Amino acid sequence: MMVRTHFEDTAKMTLNKAILLYEGDGHSFATIHNVVIEGKTKQSLGAGHPVDVEMLGTLINALGRNVSIGGYLPPNILSVGFDSMVWWVKPSKRRVFFKTNEEIIGERSEVVPHPGLVFGVNGSGVWAVCAVKGNTRPTEDTPIWQAPYFNVWSSGNICTGTIETPKSVAVTETGKWEECFFSSYFSHPNAHGSRQLINSRINPYQFWKTVLDGKYKTFPTQKLVQTNKTLKDFIKTINGSDR
């Protein structure tokens, strides 16, 4: 049996295997079957075998050799998975917006310096950020630090609240995710406890007031809080290795 595919108009293929997918009560199960040829036209399915991770990887690799799914990756992209992406943002100055119930800051917006940041998103709804030191592209062994922002948990996950986030995790959408983060209101610290958000004797509200007041020309990275993790750990979490 010749099969016409979506990626090559002239591709000639023989039906060789079939995958049956069973779903119900929130669970899924798949079996793979050889196609048995009987005569010139009759075909049937052979006995099925459960689809395991190894078999699925073999299938994905085979599909990858036949269809072009890649493209140019900008240097800021650190990792791309099937439904995930991790990218780096150089230290820079960007506008931030605060809207708090504390009189120390209240409602305020200024252009301020930021440390190097690494963002990660995936199709399961995870949106996270961590900080890195230096101005060069980080490697998998680069230590990561707590992102020093309000609305960010100790895990690095970003509290979205009522934010409408981008629908896609494509590499072309990194700017939209960054804009979504920096244009939202920072309302309160989500990393609670002494020195969990900022490594300083003053509290996060007081620290960010000094930043908003223009005390620093570059972000004071000595104020970042250690996580004892590396970029490799962050990427594994985003890509789903720890899910």
List keywords for this structure.
Prok-E2_D, alpha+beta, 2 domains, plasmid, PRTRC system protein B, about 240 residues
Summarize the structure.
The chain has 243 residues and is of the alpha+beta class.
Unreliable residue runs: 1-10, 64-68
Please tally the helical runs, counting DSSP H or I stretches of 4 or more residues. 4
Mean pLDDT: 86
Strand order across the largest sheet:
4-5-8-9-10-12
- Oligomer status: single chain
Largest sheet: 6 strands, antiparallel
Shape from CA axes?
A: elongated
Strand content: 25-35%
Nearest-angstrom radius of gyration?
Answer: 24 Å
Helical content, roughly? Answer: 10-25%
Number of strands: 12
Distance between the termini: 40 Å
What does it look like?
The chain is α+β, with helices and mostly antiparallel strands and 243 residues long. 17% of the residues lie in helices and 33% in strands. The protein is built from four helices and twelve strands. β1 (17-24) and β2 (27-38) form a beta hairpin. The longest helix is centred in the N-terminal third of the chain and has 14 residues, at 53-66. The protein starts with 16 loop residues before the first strand and ends with a helix.
